Queue: 2 jobs
Job 1
Amino acid sequence: MHLLRPILIAAGAATVCSLCAFWAVRSDPARLIFRILFKRRETKCGCACCCGEGGGERRNGEMGSEAMDVDVKEGASMMEQLVPEITTHALSYLDYTSLCRLSMTNSAMRRAANDDGAWKALYKKDFTTEQFNVNPRNGWKAYYAATRAVINVNAEFYNIIRERSLPLMSRFWLNAEYVKCVHSSGELFSGYNAVMDSWALAFNWGQGAGGGQAVGFQLQDVRARVLSDMAWLTFKAYPDVDAGPFHVTNVYEFHNGHWYMVHHHSSPILMDGAPNQFNFLG
């Protein structure tokens, strides 16, 4: 059933789009249906005349009308008969999981699900649309996957904060001297060792202030940009304790198949002209 669901959704959307296509053409819809269902006969003149006779003339004086020419593939599915624009629009109704499942059904659906236009539409639906100048070098499918991976890594960062796990935090950051961390207290820590010491202090401070209570965050207005081996995110973080919220910027670098944090900057959001009580865990 999981594999059939995206097919049924895409087929339903394709049917609606087909009806819209019939309305859009400036000819008799019955002729369009006829040309799709019955392959046109080639004549000696080399043209595909709708009257089936030579001479290169079309009925009712339709000379050179290419708008109604439809290439028909014998045994092709309904999805394969649709023009690419309609197929892309139909697939835009699917989410990430359904599009991936659709690609595993057969070769025709795999080609349709890997269409770059479908992944561009999905990216604009799931992520920020403010960067209209993005032109992914490896296509929209790869760019969508990279953006999704970075956002998932960023969510893991706040899971580590909630668990107050210094070992996980030490593996999360890139071990380099140029990494930097600015906590919501305003203090800047530069270099890997100094950054780790700051998180050890933050986790101990959290233990004393909250009595060991785990601090969770809700992330809103997440905006990501991925450029080759570097990515940055801006968002608002709302802790589930009496502190914050914060404006946050996180920067990541891609090394050996993994994204590592190289910069974290958190600052309190001004509320009524004054910052809220800060939380060092920010």
Job 2
Amino acid sequence: MATGTRYAGKVVVVTGGGRGIGAGIARAFVQNGAQVVICDKDESGGRALEQELTGTVFILCDVTREKDVQTLISETVRRFGRLDCVVNNAGYHPPPQWPEETSAEGFRQLLELNLLGTYTVTKFALPHLRKSQGNIINISSLVGAIGQVQAVPYVATKGAVTAMTKALALDESRYGVRVNCISPGNIWTPMWEGLAALTPDPAATVLQGTMNQPPGHLQWQPNPGPGRPLPPDVRQPALLHSRIPSPGPVCCLGQRRSLEIAVAQTCLAWGLGGP
């Protein structure tokens, strides 16, 4: 249910919106009055969120399939008559692998999802975003800039997303379309929890991820479960970033003590042009 009208009448597509960071972003936009299209290849999660959040529509879509993406964008515009913002959040982080354990096939599949999926959604959304002078927000990763052990393919794909964001921002500035990326650090999501469970000592993995964060805890939890409250220091940075204006095409590379703490609120700030 909307608690604000800041984005009333605006239409937002969130890929990978059925759970984790994507679901949190969808909730934030709905709470501020936007109409949100949840895109996910997991129908059960997407349908559940559609039922939970008034003002959302779920469209089954695999962003690695061009026809799915074409349908996603065309159906969004057919239903709502416009498109104001795309959040390219769909992605995957494989389990830890040393370089010699990786394969070219696995690398290609990850590129299809993390990089080409973002490219394809953006390509088909751009004609409509140019009309509305809208926004593209790509979810990259901090490790795309600083690296990560046992994650060569993932780091490469996220570094490419950040680079692509910069190029898009330059190209689309003439149309008034803003293009940004957010580079989160460790955020407690179902994916992060699942990856930790695959390690020999999940508790130690979670502790290591926790200590790698400047405040000393895993950052934002989009849907906190029992016993996992939202960290109290999230609120003030979230309020701060929800007030950042977006005067033009800029690319933010993710500041460790700011953007990773308030992903959804930063999407709100950038997604529709600031306050």
